[in-house]
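Could someone model 6-O-phosphono-beta-D-fructofuranose with this protein?
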Amino acid sequence: MKRIAILTSGGDAPGMNAAVRAAVRKSLSMGMEVYGIERGYEGLLDGDIKKMEWKSVGDILQRGGTMLRTARSERFMTPEGQDHAAKMLDTFGIEGLIVIGGDGSFRGSMELDKRGITVMGIPGTIDNDLGYTDYTIGFDTAVNTVLSLISNIRDTASAHERTTIIEVMGRHCGDIALHAGLAGGADVILVPEADLDINKVCRRVLRGQQSGKLHSIIIKAEGVEIDSMELAKEIEERTGREARAVVPGHIQRGGTPSGRDRILASLMATKAVELLYDDEESQAIGIVGNDIVHYDLAKALEVEREFGEDIYELAEVLS
Ligand code: F6P
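Reply:
Sure, complex below.
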């Protein structure tokens, strides 16, 4: 392939810029022309497509967000929108597309693939909710951001001898809660993949209190269907210890990407460019163990995410 394009789509994730940078510079180093599409599929429909040079991606490696900006495009979800998007790529003479995003963005890519466009999907989402890859770009940074929040909360929770619920992002996937919970020494981790048992939660809080703990930290994924403030009230009533709930929200999605996310992004983007250069069919790039892997895009989307039962159980033992 001689001319390719890149877009970022869906919720931004720290490390997306590192992926854009690597995709642009790797393409140029291989003699390909590369275009940046602004605001994801939305910008593609509007023809917001610009040629990228080596310098276009200077000074972005360390930044969160995405220099290409992003969107969740309603228009692209219709067959007419998808036809129009494919035509737009054709008009610009773009033969292959790199899409950096999550599950919804990849499903959009499949529609372009059906219309003859080769798409390489790079998993960029803090949620880590794609089954075919161990990690997605942005997840590691989000976990580290939550860890720093847990440290802050510990100080004030200890000072007041309180229970604090920290509600973390992750839509239908509990991975941020799970990993930050284990690494942050949470007393309780609540995820959508496991049943919520309020009696058990209160027993753990009480056990901590009785053993002299000054605070209890509960990490709850947003996908757990109970309002965090309500839960705090209920725990307070049942345990007799003051409780608060904190929802850091989009704070978890910004910030400078971790080294690990930058490396992951650079390696995955490089693989995507190489696959396009070799005229491969549409693929989803991932990491399994220490290896950068790629699978047929449609097949990758069929893989169900496995819940980290081992981490969940270990966190319970260690808390
Ligand atoms: O998918 C990433 C994510 O941050 C989820 O964790 C969260 O549920 C959602 O996006 C929030 O979306 P928005 O930024 O559109 O409110």
